[in-house]
Design a protein that fits this description.
Layout lengths: L21 H21 L4 H8 L3 H29 L1 H20 L4 H29 L2 H32 L4 H4 L1 H15 L13 H23 L5 H23 L13 H31 L4 H29 L1 H22 L6 H28 L6 H35 L2 H5 L3 H9 L1 H14 L4 H41 L7 H9 L15
Amino acid sequence: MHHLTPQDAATDYTQLPGYKNRWWGLFFICVSLLVIAIDNTILNVALPSISRDLEASASDLQWIIDAYALVFAALLLTMGTLGDRFGRKPALQIGLAWFAVGSLAAALSSSTEMLIGSRAFLGAGAAIIMPATLSLITSTFPPHERSQAIAMWAAVFGLGVGIGPVAGGWLIERYEWNAVFFVNLPVIVFALIGGQMLLTNSKDEAAPQIDIPGVLLSIPGLFALVYGIIKAGETSWTDGTVIASFAVSAILLGIFAIWESRSKNAMLPLELFRNMSFTGANTAVALVMFSMFGSVFFLSQYFQSVHGYSPFDAGLRVVPMAFVLTIAAALSAQVAKRIGTKYTVALGIFIAGMGMLFMSQMYDVETPYSTILLGMAILGAGMGTAMSPATDSIMGSVPPSKAGVGSAMNDTTRELGGAMGVAVLGTVMNTAYLNGVDGLGAQFQLPSTAVEAIESSIQGAHAVAEGFAASGAPGAAQVSQAIIDAANQAFVSGMSEAMFVASLVMVGASILVLFILPNRVRSYDEMSVEAEQPEGIRAKPVPAIGD
């Protein structure tokens, strides 16, 4: 089995070439990250325009979203490993250039097939960029500054996710849908120039040979896993395609784990998982993203469909949550220094869980925005507090030589947790929604096509209602309003149930973190020293505050 080489303690960061410009370098790393973070959410508001212009079906629109997520999640681990081997700065620059080409292709797409292909291409570019950003921070900043730098990284990611819908809404109201892709180009050029001038390359000087079997097993294994999760959210967990995807994933990832445990050139050294600073924090990240992605997915629909806001106005109303998340993430490093990593992460997850619980009980069809805002603020404060110390724990527990692998694992667990959240919470919500609109067809003697549209989504129900209102038939206005009221109430009931489930997951996650996450980040060096000492004389680490 390939053993990692402890390096952190021996590294004199003040003598590294990039030390002098590290904070300016962090600025351009964050600009690079911002492109990906915004791209995650900016496209959602453009989907109606894309549907009209390219005559895209609901299935086409789903693939435009999913193609990016599938390729991104499948390639992260491989791209992180390649960045460690060949250099993180070149990886970042190549990834940005790749993303620019993909953005241009997406903007110029004249068919849904071309747009789906461009989005898959963009997913590969994002998979190159994201591990490079975090691993460059880890290899440039000394341990005592790293937590603050990672806190800024997490804050920018949260900010990007929040301003994406606003930027998208603003662009859509003024330009065509392809503006959401064109806007990436000047930002990427800025990041490329600044990164070239101020970032210093780093890589694993003792990198093993490329783990070809690991690559060939991990990419299709992760692809099948994420595809199964996404498909389950669209259809059902017992769908034949979903079961087949999970079966293929289990076989491939199982063989991958066996191979990695025996290979001297393992791309993901399994000994990393012995350190609970790594495994516990990855678990926490996955569970936080499970609840966050699932809940935010509902909020934009709640604002637009139930409250009737435009995409831009709906995006504006989510910005305060992103702002609170950003502030909390930036301050979380100082909190972690005072009370320790474990208690900061657990506290953040618990606060987020209380935010979810509040939202599940207080949100209704007529809920005023001030009440909605309070719930979002609590949720944002909790998520911001938890995310960056958890990320710092992951990155602090891997040696600098494997920073790309550590970053890729952090990003992969984010994607898997988020996809699972949308799928599981979406299923909870959809079940309640269907129960709420059940019987409308019989009550108003609706044709089967109208019933199918109502059951497909709240947007479909509103479209049916608008059709009735426009028909001018006797009593059409009353029927139209009854369908809208029933669909809105069904959606809110489903959203409340899903958020209640998410709150339970978050509270459970906060308790789990207290049991499994060390309060002080345990570096790979410490784990290696302990493993080499004879049983009975192993030195116990000095506990941090509260340990």
